[in-house]
Amino acid sequence: MTLQELMRKIQQDPVCRSMLPVDLAMLYPAFSVKRGILCAHILCHRAAVKPEGLEIWSPELRLEIACPQVRPISVVNLKFDGPYTGGTKLIPNRSPDERARHIETVHKLVSLGDALLTEWEKTGSADLSAYNECLKSVLEPAQWEILSAFVESN
Amino acid sequence: MEPLENMETSETLFPPQTDLLMDNETIQKIKDAQANTKDSGITPEALEQLKELQRDDKDVVREFIDKVRDGLEDVRDGVMDFLGIDKEDKEETTDFDPDAFQKDIESGAAEWHEQLEPYSCAIASQHFIISEYTDAPVTEQDLIQTASEMGWYEELGTPMADVGNLLLAYGIDTTTRMSGDFDDLLEATANGDRVLVSVQNMAMTTEWADGYPAYSANHVVEVLGIDKSDPENPRVIVNDPGIPNGQAMSMTRENFEDAWMTGGGYMCVAHRPDSN
Q: What is the predicted ipTM?
């Protein structure tokens, strides 16, 4: 299973479909191992493309999914249980060079995620640190702050 | 190819003790379809896939059915025989009439408006279809009210599972696929049906799709049709309620699929009341 296949399967899971509003975008997950189970921690937020850049909202939901089976563990509404800050942030349009760098980093993240999932399926274990470090570098600091609690507690 | 009945029995494929989600009627339809078709059948690979299915997952079963349908054209023809659909009618739909297409698009485009609330894209998209298909004097605000009362619209928007419920409530039959592909879309629109699809709004514009670390659908739009004026470069025409210039917006196939596949190819076909 690839990382993007995992993301697609989550959207097709009956439990997730009944809980997840279609209006929220899922960020790529952070991974942790909990009681021997590979867990994906995913933030969901609203995003709108504006002429001046990408407007993103504070994450509204956090999903925890057992992988690679795609079994939902929890869906948390961060307004009720989490560091919900509200408000929006505009990420200004990037220069061509900046955009190319971001695209390259996201592609690297996807490759690391593919390798991690493949390794886990083969051996039941995998080194998560390279992937999670790469994820940290592409997320907004406030987004990573929410996920880091789950990654670092394992 | 080996006929289905010689390879496995329905009891073998679907042990009685499991929670049966592909019922015997469906199995019988596949068998009948095969019986109506010469030199065709379900491949051993497809059977292997079937055996591996987790039968407690309705959506996975649906996905499998889609794969069988898509991969075996002969079986599809057999199903059409079984259902009494004339194959010549289907072939006729592949002829593209630019004038009729334009008229059809204008009819759908006339219903477009921007969504009223930040999270009401699915309701606005269903409103386009309800307004076009029925005489119901209903506004998007009315639909938001109805969906809220029914639990189909909450603080953060419409749960994925509830997209299409308003159509059903207004008497419009729908067919939902979790993993549709471009051929499914061609077929649905060739029949004159409108289609709701979940897409990623960032990928719709291409500017942010590959450089922002998100990968999922986060928006619903209505597909009005597929412009095949240039058969090598078909364009998808969508009513997008989320942006000011979203009326009958024309996109390349590649651009559309990039946005659509982030959600796995979800599609909800709204059948015209008079199309059956």
A: 0.91
